[in-house]
Amino acid sequence: MKLKSWLRTVPTLVIIGTVLFFVLSAGSGLLLWGSSFADNMVHSQLSEQKITFPAKGTTALDPKLFPGLQRYASQPVDNGAKAKAYADQFIRVHLKEIGGGQTYSQVSAASLANPKNQKLAQETQTLFRGETLRGLLLYAWGWSVVGEIAFWVGIAALIGAVAVLLALVIGFAGHEHSVRNSTTSPAPEREPALV
């Protein structure tokens, strides 16, 4: 059958619906795979670091200083939410204490201006390491958010693909029903013309 005659017999909506179904199905599969990949990557990379929140009731996790971290006490940092909490509510507090509220770049500039000051040199190194770890944990959190967004968009695309498939099936069933009715029912009789 030639393409032109096939296109004349198949309604345009069926072609569009079929293409849309395949696009949504493929998109859904890729998004769900990407979500799973991001989640597994974040979890495995964080787990390998073996970072753990301090135990509850210790001075390292003082409820007055770290109220938002009490629910994570003694837990490993193994997902994006925990990585963000550790970076923003634990490391950041310690970095502010070490640098007196100044960032690594500010303390580093002061250390470069006074190279013989060992205290500034030590603070510079500690701030550099702390801010680096904090940044890496926040990147892990960012990728976990991207993975979560991909998961929900993948679910929406899957629901869209199922809806399009149902519409195609219902349309096909309706078309078959109308074809059967038109072939089985007798043609209406013509009334004689009045002259």
Largest sheet: none
Radius of gyration: 32 Å
Query: Please, what is the oligomeric state?
Result: single chain
Number of helices, where a helix is a run of at least 4 consecutive DSSP H or I residues: 5
| Content-based structural category | mainly alpha
Q: What is the overall silhouette?
A: elongated
Which range best describes the helical content: under 10%, 10-25%, 25-40%, 40-55%, 55-70% or over 70%?
A: over 70%
Number of strands: 0
User: How many domains in all?
Assistant: 1
| N- and C-termini, Cα separation | 48 Å
Instruction: Write the H/E string, N to C.
Output: HHHHH
Mean pLDDT, nearest integer? Answer: 86
Low-confidence stretches: none
Strand content: under 5%
Which tags fit this structure?
5 helices; 195 residues; mainly alpha; single chain
In short:
Helix content is 73%, strand content 0%. It is built from five helices and no strands.
Account of the protein in words:
The protein is mainly alpha-helical and 195 residues long. The chain has one domain. Helices cover 73% and strands 0% of the residues. The protein has 5 helices and no strands. α2 packs antiparallel against α5, α3 runs antiparallel to α5 and α4 packs antiparallel against α5. The longest helix has 67 residues. The model has no long low-confidence stretch (mean pLDDT 86).
